[in-house]
Amino acid sequence: MQAGKPILYSYFRSSCSWRVRIALALKSIDYETIPINLIKDGGQQLAIIEYLEETRPTPRLLPRDPKKRAHVRMISDLIAGGIQPLQNLSVLKQVGQENQLTWAQKAITSGFNALEQILQSTAGRYCVGDEVSMADLCLVPQVANAERFKVDLTPYPTISRINKTLLTLEAFQVSHPCRQPDTPPELRA
Amino acid sequence: MQAGKPILYSYFRSSCSWRVRIALALKSIDYETIPINLIKDGGQQLAIIEYLEETRPTPRLLPRDPKKRAHVRMISDLIAGGIQPLQNLSVLKQVGQENQLTWAQKAITSGFNALEQILQSTAGRYCVGDEVSMADLCLVPQVANAERFKVDLTPYPTISRINKTLLTLEAFQVSHPCRQPDTPPELRA
Fold it and tell me: Chain B closest CA to A21's CA: distance in Å?
């Protein structure tokens, strides 16, 4: 990372890639994208975000206060470890085509039920207080997945409100799946 | 945490609880256990471990070097976000009884294939170099789960070797599921 321009192996639609793209944009790190169509499971990209945080500490993506940091990590892990792995491509393939939508919706609503409740005690303008954090980087791509799977978001007013606010920020817009080098023309915006 | 003895809401068999128990033992933090039989999904307990690391920095569970820290987090996230959520109780229930074993084995072997390869470049005595880290806290409970699901571990010599070494350490023994307040008599050792 210190030597030369970092390379992000990215897939336009992957919520894991999107999280990292938001972090790179927030920290104004210039990078090259190598699009790949093979997606690994899980929330491994959180390790990249923590690494960026340690090597490029400004702006902070983790609050200084240990309790708030724990809240940020709890929310990030709930999304990246508790929801996203259950509704990613390889798991859906294993579930079988006829059950995919129900399966993904169940994973997301059960996670969002917990998340909505947590946010009611941690949120300010964003997921934890009024500063953008790693939790917000996880929230927006997950809400986009929820929309793809036609999850009804009415029971989640806090999630919806924070998501809407975050999507007005430039870092969340330039990193959006509809604006990546490998986005197919019909999905561009 | 600063005021009074911390309370761990724990389930003897949960790999998430076990990870945290190892961290508490390594940091010599005295705590009370409240056994609970309700288990939340995912790797949320990594937030507790990071919090412990920040408030009780000795002994370190994350290496000082940012690249090594990223390796530790990558391995931890692979296990806690990429493997464990796919084989936990609530997902297995959703999968249906007749498919549970195959499902869990597939999730674990696909994760262990990636993990074995990563460890070949990061491991020393333990997962990352020669110091016990958060990655090791994730490894041992996951290997125990693999054994419960009768996964053949012969293709994973590095995973098996590190697991065996770690199980000789006291922190991994006192925190073991077979020695918890809520361990049923027939599973005690």
Answer: 17
B136: amino acid identity, one letter? D
Please tell me whether residue B38 adopts helix, strand or coil conformation: coil
Task: Please state the domain count of chain B.
Answer: 1
ipTM tops 0.85: no
| Residue A68 belongs to domain with CATH number | 1.20.1050.10
CA of B83: which chain A residue's CA is closest?
A: A42
Q: Give the tokens for residue A96.
A: 């079988």
A67 and B51 within 8 Å at the Cβ level: the answer is yes
Query: Does residue B172 sit within a domain?
Result: yes
For A145-161, the pLDDT digits (tens) are 999 999 999 999 999 99
In this complex, which of A44, A70, A94 lies closest to B50 when CB atoms are compared?
A: A70
Q: What is the DSSP letter of A40?
A: -
Nearest-CA neighbor of A88 among B91, B44, B115, B15? B91
A65 and chain B: CB distance < 8 Å anywhere?
Answer: no
